[in-house]
TrEMBL record:
Coiled-coil residue spans: 8-60
UniProtKB keywords: Coiled coil
Organism: Agrilus planipennis
Protein name: Sjoegren syndrome nuclear autoantigen 1 homolog isoform X1
Domain of life: Eukaryota
Transmembrane segments: none
Any one GO CC term of the record: centrosome
Keyword Membrane: no
Amino acid sequence: MSEHGAALQTYNQELVKCLEELKNKRNALQVIIEREENEKMQLEKNMKVIQDKLQSCNNKLIQHIRIRNNYDQTIKETEVGFKKILESSQTLLNLVQHEAGKLNTCIDSLCKISSIQYNASCD
């Protein structure tokens, strides 16, 4: 029986030793888990900051695109108006030149008539 008692005591010592090793491994793993949880929390915090910055950047981008589109529209409308002014100016210039030509023709005709009458009265 003492053999059984000695074997039982050996098993008991081995069992206690195995339990201590398991507890040590579990404690080491718990330290790793806590470190990873802290890292996860830090990453989530950083991610939140980055998401907020991204949202802010997107909002600014949307505003700037709207303003740029307003510039584009204003430039387009101004160019169309300026083109119309140029076309109107060209039309007006052509009209004035045509009328001036007609007036010059009339003046030339009158001058010829006056010259003829003047010469006739002088004769």
